[in-house]
Structures
1.
Amino acid sequence: MTTTANPSEAPVPTCDVVRLPDGAQLFLRESGPRTGPPLLFLHGNRDNHTHFTELIGHLDATHRCVAVDLRGHGLSSKEDVELSARQCAEDIAYVAKERGWTEVIPVGHSLGAVTSMLIALEQPSLVQTLVLMGAAAHYEMKWKRPEVTEATYRDVITESNARAAPFFFVDGYPGVADRVVASWSWVPFQVHRNLIRLSHPDLREAVRGIRARTLVVAGELDRSTPLDRARYLAETIPDARLETVGGTGHFMFMEEPEDVADRIHRFLAAV
C-alpha cells in the first residue's frame, strides 16, 4: 500500500506555464515535495494532465510530481500547426532546462511514452529512470477514422470515438471511459486535425539504445498497445522490467491507480 503524509505538512499544489522559444506555452501542475528529480507525467494523444490525478494522488506524498499538458492539449497552446512526438520531446527538454532540472523521471502514457523514449534516447544524462505505460516502440492504428470536415466535425467525432472505444477501454470501468471520451470530444477541429495526423516514429531498433532503468506497465487487456508490444520493450531495452495489471486496458493507471502507484513506488525504491 502507498504511504500518506500529513496534509498540513504537504506543499500546496501549484500551477504554472512555461513559454517555449516559439511563443507557445506549456501548462504544468506540480505537487508533492519540492526536492529531488520530478516525476514528469506525460499524457497520450488528445488526453490531458487531469487523467493522472488519482495516480499522482497516490505518489505525491513521497515524490515530486509534475503533470504537463503537451503542446496542443489541455491548457497548453493550441496553434493550428503540425505536431509530432519529436516536437513534444523537444518541448519537454526545454522545460527541464528552463526549470534547472538536471534529472527528470518521465512517466509517459501512450504518446507521452513515445515522447519519454525520445527524451531518454536524445538526452540520456537527463533521464536515468523511466516509466512507460500503454507504450509501443511502433504504433499502428487499429481502426479507421471516418472522414471529417469542419462542418461535419461535431457529428462525426461521436462516431470516431465509438470506433476507438473497444481498443482503449474495458468493461468494469465506465467512469474512465466517460472521462477520456469527454476529453476527446471537445478538442477544437483544427487541433483535432493536427493531433490525428501526429507522427509516431518507429523506435523498434532505437530503443536498444535506451540506457535508463525502465519500468514498462501494461494493461492485460489493452488492445491499442497490446501486451506483446510491452513485452518487446521490456525485452529490448537493456535495463527494463515489465509489470502487467490484470483486467485493465490502455488506461490502466486510471482504472487501478493505487495498484499502478504501488508498482511505481517499488520500482523507484529498487533503483
Note: Residues 7-270 form a domain with the Rossmann fold fold (CATH 3.40.50.1820).
2.
Amino acid sequence: MRIFRDFAGLPPDARGAAVALGNFDGVHRGHAAVIAAAAEAAHGRGIPLAALTFEPHPREVFRPHDPPFRLTLAEAKAEALAALGVEILYQLPFDLGFSRMPAETFIDAVLAAGLGARHLACGPDFHFGHKRTGNPALLATLGPAHGMGVSIVPEAASPDGLVWSSTAVRDALKAGDCARAAAILGRAWEIRGTVARGAALGRTLGFPTANIPLGRHLAPRLGIYAVEAGVASADGEIVWRPGVASLGLRPTVNPLPEPLLEVHLFDFAGDLYGAAMRVRLHAFLRDEARFETLEALVAQMHQDATRARALLAGG
C-alpha cells in the first residue's frame, strides 16, 4: 500500500480512485463495510481502492487534554486498512487550520481537484469541514457534479444486534470485555509500543516483564489479562508468544502515576529492551489489587499465570 500525506501534487496513478472516507479508528467491521462499498465501485470501474483518513485524529486536536482514546495509531491503522485491500492511503495531516476548511471546499479542492476521486464511500455519521457542516447528504448532492459516485453505507451491526462502532469497542475495553471488543473489530485488540526499561522488580520476583507505555492508546479496564505478544524476528516475521500481563498503576510496590502494560511471556528468557512489541489482549482475568506482602503478590501472580495459560490453550 502506498501512503500519501498531501492531497496536492499527487502522481497520476495515485488519483482517480474509489475512496473510502473516515477516521477509521480501530478499523472494525463497520469500517470494513465502508471499505467493501468502495472496493465494489473500484472493481466495477477498474480503478484503485483508496482510503482517506486524518492524522492525528481530529478529536486529539479539538480536545487535547482528554485522556488518550485511540484504538489504533497510524501504523496499525495503515496495516489494518491494507489487510482489507486498500491500495492507496491518503493520510492527511489534521490541525486547526485544516479544520476551518469549508465543507464545500473539502469536496471541491481535496476530493475532486486533489484526489480526482471517481467514487466516494462513507458511513452515515461521517462529518467534515468547518464546524462539521459536511455530511453524507452533502456528498451525495455535490459529488455527482464532480463526476464522483457516492455510496452511503448504513450503520453496521452483527445479526445479534452488536453495533460495530469505535465507541462500542472502547466501551467493551473499558469494561474488560475482550471478547466483545474482538467481535466488533474482527480480531483481538492490541497495544503497540517499544519495550522500556523498568525497575526489574518482576525479574526479582520470578516474573520478568516487558514494559510498554500506553502512550496515545486508550487505557482499558485496569487489571490482569491473558495476552499474546508479538516481536519481529531477525528475518522480520512476527513471532507470537503467550503470556500474562498487568495493566495498571502497580499499587503494591512502587505505585505509578499512569497506567503501564507489563507483559510476562511464558517460557521466554530473551532481552527485549528497545524492541517494538505488539500485545493482543485476549481475556480479562481480574482487577488489579494491592497486596499486603510480596509473598501474597507472588502467589497471586502464579495463579494468574496458570489461568492465562489455560485460557490461551483453549482450556
Note: Residues 159 and 286 are 30 Å apart (CA to CA).
3.
Amino acid sequence: MTTDTDETALTIDELAARAGVTVRTVRFYGTKGLLPPPVIGARRVGHYGSEHLARLALIEELQHQGMTLAAIERYLRQLPADLSPHDLAIHRAVVASWAPDTVETVTRQELERRAGRALGDEDVERLAAMNVVRADGDGFRCDAGLLRLAVRLLDVPLSLESILAARSVLIEHSRAAAHELAELFRGEVAERDTQDVKSLSAHMHPIVVQALLTTFQRSLKEELSEWVPLLGDGSSQVGGSS
C-alpha cells in the first residue's frame, strides 16, 4: 500500500517514474516555478514528496484541458502557497470535471504510463471491475477521466466489494443531486435563448462541481469525526485540510 510516508522521500527519478513523466520534465517545471524546490538531504540529494506528485498530476490535467504552459503558470500562481496534496487533488478534480467524457483505446504500456505506475494482472482486473478499463483486442478501452482516481483506489485497504458499493452510493446520490439542481435551474433558463443557456452552463459547471466537492468533503469529515478517534493513532491519517 502507498502511504503519505512512502511519498515524502522520493528521488527525482522516483518522482518522475511515479508521476509518469521524465526527469527532464520535472527539472523543467522546477525552473519554471511550477514545482516547489526539493528538500535537500544528505549528500546534497534532493527529496520530493506527495505535494510534488499532486502538483504534477494537476499540471498534467491542465495540459489535458489544452492550457498552454504560460496559462498553467498563471493558474498555479493564483493558488494559495500552502495547499496540501489533498487540496491540490480537489483542484485537479474540479479541472477534470470541465473535460468531456473521454474513452480511448490504449496499449498496456500507455495504460501504465497514464496510471503513473506498473499494473499487474490483478490491478487491471480491479480496474475492469470498477468499469474504468476493459480489454479490447490487444489493448484496453480506458476511461481517461477516471483512471488516475481508480488507480489510487487500488492502494486503499478496502475490499473490492466495498469500493464498488461506495461507487454505487456516489453515483446514485450524484445523479439525484444533479437532477435536483437541473430542476432548480430549469425555470431560470426557460426564457433564455440557446446561446445564453450554453453560456450559463459553462459558467455554472465548475462552480457547482467545486461547491459539491467542498460540501461533501466537509460533511464526510464531520461523519468520520464521530468514530475516527476510536481508531487511535491512525486517525490523524484520515481526511485532509478543507
Note: The first helix runs from residue 12 to 19.
